[in-house]
Amino acid sequence: MAPQTPEPKSAPRAATGGRAARRSARRAARRARRHGIRRLIPTWRGTLLTVLGVGLVVALAGLGAFLYLYQHITIPDPNSSAIAQTTIVTYNDGHTELGRFGGTNRVVVPLSDVPVPVREAVLAAEDRTFYTNPGFSLKGIVRAAINDAQGRPLQGGSTITEQYVKNNYLTDRQTITRKIKEFVIALKVARELPKDKILADYLNTVYYGRGAYGIQTAAQSYFGVNATQLTVAEGAVLASLINAPSALAPESALPALTARWAYVLDGMVTQGWLTPAQRAALRFPTIRPVRISSQYGGTNGYLLSTVRAELLNLGFTNQQIDQGGLKVVSTFSQQAQQAAVAAVEQNRPTISASGVHEGLAAVVPGTGAVLAMYGGSNYVTRPFNDATQGAPQAGSTMKAFTLSAAFEQGIGLNSYFDGNSPLQLPGSPPVHNEFNTNYGKVSLLTATEQSINTAFVQLTMKIGPQNVYDAAIRAGIPKSAPGLLPNARITLGTAAVTPVQLADGYATVAAQGIYAPWHTVDEVFAANGGVLYRAPANATRAFSPQVTANVTYLLSNVVQHGTGTAALALGRPAAGKTGTAGNRSAWFVGFTPQLATAVGFYRGSGTASLSGVGGLPTFFGADYPARTWTAFMQGALAGQPVLGFPAPVSMGTPVDLAPTPTPSPSPSSSASSSTTPTVTGSPTPSSSGTTVPSPGSSPTSSSGAPTPGASGGAPLPTGPTVGPLPPVAGPSG
Predict the structure, then answer these.
(1) Are the C-beta atoms of 293 and 211 separated by less than 8 Å?
(2) Which of 226, 254, 434, 591 is deepest in the core (most CB within 10 A)?
(3) What is the C-alpha radius of gyration for the chain, rounded to an integer number of angstroms?
């Protein structure tokens, strides 16, 4: 039997090939069934592949775009408004706040000044995963993109980092472009800055309402405390306000704020930052009423405006002052300033006092520091400073500088003059005493005590008006003072000066001849604490101590026995001088060894009469000005030691410029004749007065002619009152 042939081994391939053939047949059948428009519709497999391909391309493109943006978008410099800080002006203690400069009410504090529970309240309100998240929220980015596509407004930053980036580096424009930049910068900030740094900057830049930027000013505005003193309940209120300061304002939306406050505290419990028991014990805190006021309101506005003018004069810019976060230590004493306001307000005249202005300035002898100033009742309603700008004529207060010049020129204390009135001047109207009073032969002491004009004009002509002019300038009266001219009437106070200038001039005498320009800025510190400025010790010697000792002796007798006896109520050694100029201004300027103060009254622009003010027919410096001065000095010097003045010294040569009295008529003379009357034991010349010759010569009686060769020069002015001066930042003389 023949052997059987084996089955070919290719049979399985045939079977496989059959299956492939069947698949091909099925595909062909499906294609045959897809006719018409159905042939254009892709299969699900094709769709999936297409979507995956497009998604991959988009993802790669997005990744490339992100990498490009991350590479090219840098963290910009902070917005000027975001880093702007309030400049704080303090009293001279360096701590007590006097006022602030700047439109942005912000004071930056370190994170350590914010209690941990207060920080946690902010995190509970705004970003509970702040310390663990990457600084951005993809959910927020997607939401912003959807809102932008639908034309709806974008929402704010979802994380604290994003809010910080928006506030610090970007604008408030709500666009998808800004949102993308915010995302990129937030990512960079989160990678490059410590979380504590971000949180500290956020707390110092975010807005809390009431014009308060930063947690320090918010704590002060809502609770009257510093950030370090905030409680958990108070911190939760401030954290609640961040979400919507206007919509949650306690003045108009207290229920909504209370609800948000509860939400914040509940969030702290959820995060484990408060226990349920601690949460249950908390009560909504008392919030201070909102204060709507100008930074320049009231009497302090005059102080702040003067400090600002001085800062500008020192070279600081408006931007530095308003946004630099400076700390300015002024020269003002809170005690003295309160005394100044009280003295003026409690002693001002009320009868026929319409349009009357009072200025007060107090200067520390030897340093020029202005300790107090009264420029008006409210800077906002009248931004004109009567202490630094109001400049009525100085009147007889200028006689102090005549005395200084006289002692320098060798005039002795025991000098005598003719005190009769009027006093004829060559080529000029005569000089009169008040009420045209005749005093007869008077000593320099009596002439000073009673402020005898005719005697002082004689003294001025004897030593030369130029020397009086020079002495006034060295003491601190500026050369630019209107009416300050080297003529015989300079001693009568024809110059228009401000209270601060006169106080500075008298401070030179009080400091035993040391002149220091007046100033109101003591120190300036940068926001980081660095020293930017310290007032220099630029005092100079203007007069010898012997000269000022004698001037002080005469001025102290004005207080003891003369026109300034109202100042005796001070109860400590004081020296001073009254001054009246044509009843258009009235002054009292005086000093103790510690403080020199000028008080001046005038009406309108300085040209109107003060007659009738306070019910007085003549408004003298011995009345309201001296009483105001005394009341101020009592308050300003309270607690200070009682110091005495140096004793007068023997110097110079006495002069006797009084004419020889006319002999008394004999008994056989006409019955109509009488003996010459005497005043305080001194013979009185004829009431017709005397004539003053040129400087350096002796006067003659009114019946005689002036000494040959005497020159009156140009007619001497009658001393018109000069109105208020423009603002000044310090003495220019």
Answers:
(1) no
(2) 591
(3) 43
Task: Report residue 402 as tokens.
Answer: 């005549």
Percent of the chain with pLDDT over 90: 60
Tokens of 13: 């391939």
Max mean pLDDT range (22-31, 78-87, 176-185, 211-220): 211-220
β-strand pairing of 105-106 with 690-691: unpaired
CA 596 to chain centre: 22
Residue 310's Cβ-side half-sphere holds a number of Cα atoms within 13 Å equal to 27
Is 345 known to be catalytic? Answer: no
What is the identity of the amino acid at 358? E
Asked whether the beta carbons of 573 and 591 are under 8 A apart, the reply is no
Active site residue: 396, 428, 585, 702, which one?
A: 396
Altogether, the residues listed in the chain come to a count of: 733
Before 422, cis peptide (omega within 30)? yes
Interaxial angle between packed helices 116-126 and 232-241, expressed in degrees from 0 to 180 and rounded to the nearest 10: 30
- Scan for tokens 């300033």, then name that residue: 337
Mean pLDDT score, 223-238: 96
- State the alpha helices, DSSP H only, in 511-623: 545-561
Q: Which of 340, 339, 358 is nearest to 349 (CA)?
A: 358
Spatial neighbors of 717 by CB under 8 A, at least 6 apart, are 483, 485, 487, 489, 494
Task: Report the candidate in 643, 645, 634, 89 with the shortest Cα–Cα distance to residue 362.
Answer: 634
- Mean pLDDT: which of 63-67, 432-436, 590-594, 721-725 is highest? 590-594
Q: Is 703 assigned a catalytic role?
A: no
What span, in angstroms and rounded, lies between the C-alpha atoms of 677 and 133?
103
Distance, CA of 59 to CA of 476 (rounded, Å)? 79
> What pLDDT score does 306 carry?
96
729's tokens: 């930042």
Closest CA to 241 of 228, 263, 225, 260: 260
> What would the mean pLDDT of 148-168 be, rounded to a whole number?
64
Catalytic site residue from 120, 126, 310, 449: 126
Residue 682 has pLDDT above 60, yes or no: no
The winner for highest mean pLDDT among 67-71, 240-244, 353-357, 520-524 is: 520-524
pLDDT of residue 169: 62
Q: Where are the beta strands (DSSP E) in 345-490?
A: 356-363, 370-374, 416-418, 423-425, 428-431, 441-443
pLDDT category, 660, cuts 50, 70, 90?
low
The predicted pLDDT at position 84 comes to: 72
Q: Are 623 and 579 in contact (CB under 8 A)?
A: no
Q: What 3-state class would DSSP assign to 310?
A: helix
Identify which of 616, 589, 98 has the alpha carbon closest to the alpha carbon of residue 359. 589
Residue 270 has pLDDT above 80, yes or no: yes
Residues 396, 626: contact at Cβ < 8 Å? no
Q: Which alpha helices (DSSP H) does 271-355 contain, by range? A: 276-281, 300-313, 318-323, 334-347
Eight-class DSSP state of 713:
-
pLDDT confidence band for 56 (50 / 70 / 90):
low
Residue 210 CB burial class (10 angstroms; 0-12, 13-18, ≥19)? buried
Confidence (pTM): 0.70
From 2-11, 279-288, 374-383, 708-717, the region with the lowest mean pLDDT: 708-717
| 125 vs 119: CA distance, rounded Å | 10
Q: Which residue has the tokens 């009497």?
A: 299
Of 109, 130, 206, give the one whose Cα is nearest residue 163: 206
The secondary structure element, H or E, covering residue 203 is helix 195-205
pLDDT of 62 strictly over 90: no
- Yes or no: say if 635 and 642 are a contact pair by the CB < 8 Å rule: no
**Dist. CA 647–CA 669, nearest whole Å:** 50
Cα–Cα dist 521/537, whole Å: 13
The mean pLDDT of the chain is 81
